[in-house]
C-alpha cells in the first residue's frame, strides 16, 4: 500500500486537487469539518458537501452520497469514524475519484489498502487544512 507521506507528495496532491468532496461535512460552524471546508473554500477550492442529513453547507447544496456528484472529483476528504470508511472508499472508487484523504484520527488500514490497490492516492490521519496551511 502506498500512502502519501512526504511533504512533496502531499503538496503535489493538494495542488492537483481543485474539486473536493467532503464526506461527513457538518453545517455546524463549531465542527472541524465545517472549519476545514470554509478554509478550503476561502483558498479557492471547489467543495462538495456530502451528508444526507443536511441540505446545504456554506451556501452550497449538499448531496447524500458520492454517487450523486456530477463530474470529476479530485479528492474525497473523509470526516467519518474509521469503521465507517470502507463504503466511502468503495464509492470513491466507483465514481473515479483521484484521491482519498482520511482526516486526523481516521485510520483504517484495509480501507486505505483497497483505495491504493484501485489507483487512488491515499493520505491517512492528517488534516488537509493543517497540511495546506503548513506547505503553502
UniProtKB/TrEMBL annotation:
InterPro entries: CoA-bd, NAD(P)-bd_dom_sf. Residues 13-106 form the CoA-binding domain. This is CoA-binding protein. It comes from the Bacteria. It comes from Vulcanibacillus modesticaldus.
Amino acid at each position: 500500500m502506498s500512502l502519501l507521506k512526504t511533504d512533496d507528495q502531499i503538496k503535489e496532491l493538494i495542488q492537483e486537487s481543485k474539486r473536493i468532496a467532503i464526506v461527513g461535512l457538518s453545517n455546524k460552524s463549531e465542527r472541524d469539518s465545517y472549519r476545514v471546508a470554509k478554509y478550503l473554500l476561502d483558498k479557492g477550492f471547489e467543495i462538495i458537501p456530502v451528508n444526507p442529513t443536511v441540505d446545504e453547507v456554506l451556501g452550497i447544496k449538499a448531496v447524500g452520497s458520492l454517487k450523486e456528484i456530477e463530474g470529476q472529483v479530485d479528492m474525497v476528504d473523509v470526516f467519518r469514524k474509521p469503521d465507517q470508511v470502507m463504503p466511502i472508499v468503495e464509492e470513491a472508487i466507483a465514481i473515479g475519484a483521484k484521491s482519498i484523504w482520511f482526516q486526523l484520527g481516521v485510520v483504517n488500514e484495509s480501507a486505505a489498502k483497497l483505495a491504493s490497490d484501485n489507483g487512488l492516492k491515499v493520505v491517512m490521519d492528517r488534516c488537509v487544512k493543517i497540511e495546506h496551511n503548513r506547505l503553502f
